[in-house]
Write a structure and sequence with these properties.
Aldo/keto reductase, 7-stranded parallel β-sheet, Aldo-Keto_reductase, oxidoreductase, 38% helix, AKR, binds NADP nicotinamide-adenine-dinucleotide phosphate, 292 residues, alpha/beta, TIM Barrel, oxidoreductase activity
């Protein structure tokens, strides 16, 4: 089974970036309801520093985490940034003071959000930005994605990605410009539905298109949807390989497709260390077939 260690975003563009195939997602480095400061700020900073020291060079964030909390923690822990670090952010939502998640995706709102991300992350240009779809955006999807490509032409953004998109939206986006990555809900137990969409062929269908086009899939909630399910094949294989279920889940993702770029989130250095080691697990072809 092919399990390369790295992947490229923007492979066929003037600005390719080579990423280690295990990234880190920061959303959990916030307070309750992904709002406000984390319970343990020092540990949050340690997690970010350790991720980079261990060779992770893709960090996922958004200005609506906190809001502003994960971006500011990233800057505090890691700025000035290592040359090979790619910080991928997201736009398309804004938080209410009641911790609600609200649509924020009209072109002028996207621009404000990009400027916000640039300021919080202390950057002049954002390497990767995912336009994160919410059902309320449906009516102006083309206009919003068009605004992302406009900001790319202006130099604010290097690469445009999409998040929470259906096959139709992905194909539409790919027709408008180069889509560098897709960030969708995907995990061992979560391959058929899409966040914000009603059922459908979902993750597997999207993955096929991404594989055909060499575009990375950045799956989210992979552990969240797969841990604590009780006895299942992941737990069975974790025992066989003498690793934790979280590690087996991450290893399965990495073996599932060479375009997969997992970003397991954690608030602890101990779990981060465990997750990093998962990238070294070699699952046999026979066991991958059994896992399905
Ligand atoms: N585009 C979108 O709409 C979207 C939506 C959600 C998330 N995201 C992105 O995806 C990233 C990943 O999602 P996520 O962090 O919400 O969920 P996740 O990666 O599926 O799971 C995180 C959960 O797993 C636990 N965990 C991590 N490592 C573990 C280990 N080794 N053993 C046991 N438990 C472990 C964490 O608890 P501990 O803290 O105790 O380790 C946390 O509760 C986010 O950080 C965010 O960047 C994007």
């Amino acid at each position: 089974m092919s399990n390369p260690k790295t992947i490229q975003i923007g492979a066929n563009t003037a600005n390719p970036y080579t990423l280690n195939r295990l990234g880190y997602g920061t959303m959990r480095l916030t307070g309750e309801g992904f709002y406000g400061e984390p319970k343990n700020r020092d540990e949050a900073l340690r997690v970010l520093k350790r991720a980079i020291d261990a060779g992770i060079n893709y960090i996922d964030t958004a200005d609506f985490y906190g809001p502003g909390v994960t971006n500011r923690l990233i800057a505090e822990a890691l700025h000035p940034y290592k040359n090979d670090l790619v910080i991928g952010t997201k736009v398309g939502a804004i938080r209410g003071s009641d911790k609600s998640w609200n649509p924020y995706s009209k072109p002028d709102e996207l621009r404000k959000s990009i400027d916000n991300n640039l300021k919080e992350l202390k950057q002049d240009q954002i390497t990767l930005v995912h336009y994160r779809f919410m059902p309320a955006h449906e009516a102006h999807f083309d206009e919003s994605v068009g605004a992302m490509f406009d900001m790319q032409k202006e130099g604010k953004i290097i690469h445009v990605g999409l998040s929470n998109v259906s096959r139709t939206q992905l194909e539409k986006g790919m027709g408008m410009g180069n889509i560098a990555s897709v960030q969708n809900l995907y995990g061992y137990h979560q391959r058929t539905t899409l966040a914000g969409h009603m059922g459908g062929a979902g993750g597997e269908e999207i993955l096929d298109i991404l594989e055909q086009n060499g575009i990375p899939l950045i799956p989210y909630f992979s552990l969240h949807t797969s841990l604590n399910k009780g006895e299942d094949k992941i737990e069975e294989m974790a025992k066989k390989y003498n690793v934790s279920p979280a590690q087996m889940n991450i290893a399965w993702l990495l073996h599932k497709s060479p375009v997969m770029l997992p970003i397991p989130g954690t608030t602890s250095v101990a779990h981060l260390e465990e997750n990093i080691k998962a990238a070294d697990i070699e699952i046999s072809d026979e066991d991958m077939a059994y896992l399905g």
